[in-house]
Amino acid sequence: MLKIENLCRQFGDFTALDHLNMQVDKGELFGFVGPNGAGKTTTIRIISGLLRATSGEVWVNGMRTSSNTKKLKESIGYVPDTFGVYDNLKVSEYLEFFAAAYGIYGKKASSRRDEVLEKVGLLPQREMMVDTLSRGMQQRLCLARALIHHPQFLVLDEPGTGLDPRTRRAFRQTLKDLCEEGYTILISSHILTELSDICTSIGIIDMGKMVLQGQIDEIMLSIEAANPLLITVFKDVDKAAELLRRNPLVTRISIDKNKIAAHFTGSREEEAMLLRDLVEAQIPVVSFMREQTSLETLFFHLTEHDEEVSVFEFESGI
Amino acid sequence: MNLNPVFDREIKRNCRSMKISWIVFGCNLVLGMIAVISFLGEGVIHGYMQAGRYRMPIRCYMMMGYALFLMVSLLVPGITAGSVSLEREKQTLDVLLTTNLNPWKIITGKLEASLSMVFLLAVSAMPAVALVMVFGGVELWDLLALVGLLVVSGIFIGSLGILCSVIFKRTTLATLMAYVLLIFFVAGTAAIVMIGSHIKVLQLEAEGMYGGASDIGPLIYLLLLNPFASFFSLLSGQVGNGREMLDVCNALGDYSGNFAVNHFAAFSAGIQLVLSGGFVALAGALMNPLKKR
Question: How far apart are CA B135 and CA B132, in angstroms?
Fold first, then answer.
């Protein structure tokens, strides 16, 4: 659905995007994560046709965004980070206006209006003034507005900003439902935990570059595979350590009382075989698991910068 | 035919706002006061319904015409200068630009909405202005020409306001600059013409020719950009001998055979419409987020 190749954007001397590459497949709910100033909004603005790239290419649904502006606009539903409202306009009129902006008029517009309002749970508020809606409702209305022209691809720029946890959860559920309906969704946030439980894939951007991208399950698996195996035994720690040392897949072990941390390079199946060996050797194993690492820990690790060194280097002219 | 969505939305919002009602009420109150003061004042001096005294309703018509021009000049920059910058400040512009509406359509929608204001003002003022028709001297076509020129002035001033709204990000600055530019077109162009004439006189005096008439040549065409000059030309043409504008121009050179000066109101209205088109095109180009800077 989305393919970005070597995307660069300069603002004077500042490089906001530095040869960014990313891909979002059809039907995915893609979490676009990065610290503040990493380049998320710049990327989203370029995808949505609100900013020109300095160089590089963006394809949406197989179309180059630089040459198919009109078709691109019909394919994308954009939800910005801030939701401005028009005063003196009803919810229904607000959506009808945007339907007309996409060339949808009359009965077609009103039926689509009701359809999207129902989708986001705002049908009872149809006759309310837009500026009297709560922030959560306004956010849902913004999502309804982005859906009014049947786009295939939704681009949401930090939509959870300023919402209370309950509203955020409800909003996330709506996104999950939309994804199940077949929409491809790209959602940006600087809070990874907000996305990790709904997204199918994530991309972590830092300083204008994609530092990690892939399916959440695969990433979790690869992170866990690099972590040591934590084995707790009831007794016979030395016997267990000796058995582990003899295993060619164990590269390093450390012992703390009855807990053993073993760096194991084997697969899941080989892990199971190792456990079986321990049990067959009549070692009373209490627990056997990989050390847990959350996506958040990984995010902090990937986006960590030695700022003090940078400042020193800058000031000393090194 | 479907309306421009931006125009349709603006009209819906304006209809619900008391602001427009107050503006129309205020403007008609001013026109009514002009009529009452003119008629009562004249009545006190010369007695009511004195036969043959046509000067009073004619003067009243002229005052109303200039008052309408003043109202348009004061209102339109204030409305249009915030049209795009307010969308930007309210953070609704980005969303608008991601739709199928191109920048020109957004701008023309905004301009149409401000013009509908001018049109509403002009039409609502018709009964007050038509009072003078009771006495004669002003015909229906004169009133329609006045409304027409008022709309042209609205387009010209409105497009100027929209251009400022696109260039300047903050509404206060955009509004200020719209008024500054309007003052330039009204007073600035006249001042340049006067300064040009004065320089010519000084040049003639340096050559030893005293008391001779100066000829500023094509510099007179600068007045075609002046919406007040267009109004002066139209109103004086309708209620005077029709040569007032030509007399003003002839004081700065010999323009007796000049087609543009002889048809000043129509020619300046045309020029101002063309210039308005230029302002709108420039505003649209500047608003396009994908343009190369």
Answer: 6
Q: Which residues of chain B have pLDDT under 50?
A: none
- R_g (Cα) of chain B, nearest Å: 22
* CB within 8 Å of chain B, chain A residues 103-122: 103, 105
Q: Please give the pLDDT value at position A311.
A: 34
Structure tokens at B40: 């009562």
| CA-to-CA separations, B255 to A34, A156, B188, B258, B293, in angstroms, rounded | 70, 64, 21, 5, 44
- Asked if A70 has any chain B CB less than 8 Å from its own CB, the reply is yes
What are A108-136's pLDDT values in tens digits?
Answer: 999 999 999 998 888 898 999 998 988 88
Q: Across the interface, which of A73, A80, A93 has its CB nearest the CB of B99? A: A73
CA distance B17 to chain A (A): 7
Tell me how many residue pairs between chain A and chain B have CB atoms under 8 A apart. 76
Collect all residues of chain B within an 8 Å Cβ-Cβ radius of residue A101.
5-6, 96, 99-101
Query: Distance (Å, rounded) from C-alpha A90 to C-alpha A78?
Result: 21
Q: Which CATH class is domain A228-290?
A: alpha beta
Looking at residue B43, its pLDDT comes to 63
Contact B92, A86 (CB under 8 A): yes
| Contact with chain B for residue A98, Cβ under 8 A | yes
Q: Count CA atoms closer than 13 A to B90's CA, side-chain side.
A: 15
Q: Answer whether B100 sits within 8 Å of A70, measured CB to CB.
A: yes
Contact call for A105 and B2, based on CB within 8 A: yes
Instruction: Name the minimum distance, in Å, from the CA of B20 to any CA of chain A.
Output: 13
CA–CA min distance B98, chain A (Å): 6
Name the fold adopted by A2-221: Rossmann fold (3.40.50)
Q: Chain A residue with minimal CA distance to B290?
A: A52
* B8 contacts A50? CB cut-off 8 A: no
N- to C-terminal Cα distance for chain A?
A: 44
* 3 state SS of A67: coil
Which of A61, A31, A34 lies closest to A47 in space, CA to CA? A61
Q: What strands, in cross-sheet order, belong to the sheet with A209-215?
A: A76-79, A153-157, A184-189, A29-33, A201-206, A209-215
List the single residue in A48, A82, A88 with the smallest CB-CB distance to B91: A82
Q: Where are the domains of chain A?
A: 2-221, 228-290
Find the helix packing angle between A106-119 and A91-101, rounded to 10°.
120
**One pLDDT digit (tens) per residue for chain A, 318 residues:** 889 998 899 888 888 888 999 999 988 999 888 888 888 999 999 998 888 889 998 988 888 877 777 788 888 999 988 877 788 889 999 999 999 999 999 899 999 999 999 988 888 989 999 989 888 888 889 999 999 999 989 999 888 776 777 778 888 888 888 888 889 999 988 777 777 778 888 888 888 888 888 887 777 777 777 788 899 999 889 899 999 999 998 888 889 888 999 988 888 888 899 999 999 999 999 999 888 766 677 777 677 664 443 333 333 333
Angle (CA) A186-A189-A195 rounded to 5° is 75
Residue A281: helix, strand or coil by DSSP? coil
Residue with tokens 């162009």: B189
